[in-house]
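Let's practice the habit of predicting before peeking. Look at the sequence and jot down your guess about where helices and strands might fall. Then scroll down.
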Amino acid sequence: MEWTEQAEDAIAKVPFFVRKKVRKRVEKEAAQTGKNQVTLGEVKATQTRFLSGMDAEIKGYQVETCFGSEGCPNRIASADDLVEQIEALFKQEDILSLLRQQVKGDLKFHHEFRVAVAQCPNGCSQPQIKGIGIISAARPGVTEEACIGCGACVDACQEGAIALTGDGEQPEIDFDRCLMCAKCVKACPTGTLATATQGYRVQLGGRLGRHPRLAMELPGIHTQTQVIEIVKQCIRFYREKSRHGERFSNLLTRAEFEKMVQK
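Done guessing? Here is the structure:
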């Protein structure tokens, strides 16, 4: 489906978190009327219908994913099963019913509980600004295999977290800089570097809006089972604290976050 320049300019002004959905609907409605080009008129007509019927589109939560499953070269490991489990958990918890009880008037997309899963630290699904952000992680470790001092791991690390010590026979990792992206492991030709721990980093309480805040990261790398338990804990916390459909990030203060860390 072709888009005119005016139509592209108009869709670019739609909030990013619903832009893809609006774009698909514009094209669908244009096609239904037999058109093969989207003009400004089609965008405005669809946008009006979409916004007036927004309440019917709300499901109480959003689970966003990156492009990892579509062949992204930075993908650490598949998170498809994790995403399915999180989706199933939110459906089971029926957050939508809770929001309808607490929010006066029509629901809007900012009322939804937002989760983002990224399959590498590039974070294309923007986990740092979601209520729950989940990022695939692979912590590298040094094995007993001899290092040939080729420097491939040093060249692969964009964070400058690896150095070759002494006469270049042993890689040393600065974990304060390491983002656990596994690029050094993939680059190592000898197996001197290998994945020591694989799982997920978890960040909580991120948001945009009038008072934006980056999410706070729980310490450690978590298994898939642990991630699901963390999500369950967050949902329980939300049910206990929410009174008027507030954002999870507005309820999760630094003090409450520290309590979660200690559990």
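How did you do? The first strand starts at residue 2 and ends at 3.
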